[in-house]
Write a structure and sequence with these properties.
Helices cover 28% and strands 25% of the residues. By secondary structure, it is of the alpha+beta class. It binds adenosine monophosphate and glycine.
Amino acid sequence: MKILVVGSGSREHTLAWKIVRSPRAEKVFVAPGNAGTAAIAENLDMRPTDIEGLGKAAQERAIDLVVVGPEAPLAAGIVDHFDGLGIPAFGPTGAAARIESSKGFARELMEKYGIPCPKGAVFSSYQKAREYLREQRMPVVIKADGLAAGKGVIIAGSLEEADGALADIMEAKTFGAAGDRVVIDEFLEGREVSLIAFSDGRTVSPMVPACDYKKIGDNDVGPNTGGMGSYSPPGFFPKQMTEKVTGNILMSAVKAMAAEGITYRGALYAGLMISDGEPRVLEFNARFGDPETQVVLPLLKTDLVEVLMAVVEERLDRVNIEWSPMACVGVVMASGGYPGSYQTGFPIHGLDSVDNDVLVFHAGTRLAGDGTVRTDGGRVLTVAAVAESIDRARERVYDNISRISFEGCYCRKDIALREIGGINSIR
Ligand code: AMP
Ligand code: GLY
């Protein structure tokens, strides 16, 4: 089969890495990819949101399956476009991706179908939202309705801060049209975990649970990022919890969508808060998580292409998906200054000195004319290791990270530390 992966991050490198290991994959393309994907597949220099262009490129190359990584092309209907061309594409349609691209839609769906979520409300009127804020206990969580590259959620500690966030989103339109509506949530305390599942619209099959680290600094301080590391499985999220969330949340969401006339095919991601043993949904994403995928897919024992095809052909009930009981830890190496401004173009040293079984998934990297791999973005690499315990996986990741360097390189030192009795970096 000829397979096209859309995206350029570490998640897409992980998808391509897993796909090339399938006996069914004859040729893999990544659009636009990075230096890491160039080493295992053929990169196509195209933007993920160039839906028409990607459609043409796929037709010219007789692509048999497209796998879409990021949310923007999904929300813009890339899968609908490929459906129209008769090319199987893994991912939800634009209508189904609304579960991520509109937080208001997701909240209304959860409320209508009894899917556990924080108390809250959706507003399109700035005045009504302001009045509602006055009745809420602080802190409160204010979310822009639409896609905001992970920046549209503000946790406000005081009414003043909440008013400011609301004005930014709805009046100043900091996030553009994404702020035409807002969701206001009660603030929940607890432990956060991500559970992603494969769904073909009828059958839902969970992956292994994972935790990601969103803040730039150790102990969860500083601004949010695209994700600084992740690990699987979290000790506080036992197997029974996976079953419970699969039934009450993921399956319920797929059924709710079906009741609304929408078939959900693709990866469905539930971002959960576990408070007093009860999981509630903070957000749904319509795709594989980043950086969760970098620690989840290395634990998948079944051929990924087989699973992806079962989803697009709506026969997931006939596939037995197996997961390794091992642990995986992934740590992101970022450019100094990220998530603020940073420089790129620095050569990356030491990639050859990494152990054979340690995984280096590229994100912002490019192959320079002189053959060197250079930095080309905020998040540069995710280094991941599989081992019999979180402790050992973590040790191996940091040991290998110490062999890789580039100017200004930064990584968090506390990824997965809470699992081994270190400082508890979660609320
Ligand atoms: P979201 O994009 O909706 O998942 O929000 C981003 C982050 O904000 C989450 O990963 C949580 O850390 C935090 N968050 C979102 N909603 C809530 C909530 N209701 N209570 C506490 N924290 C929240
Ligand atoms: N790790 C969070 C996300 O993928 O949105």
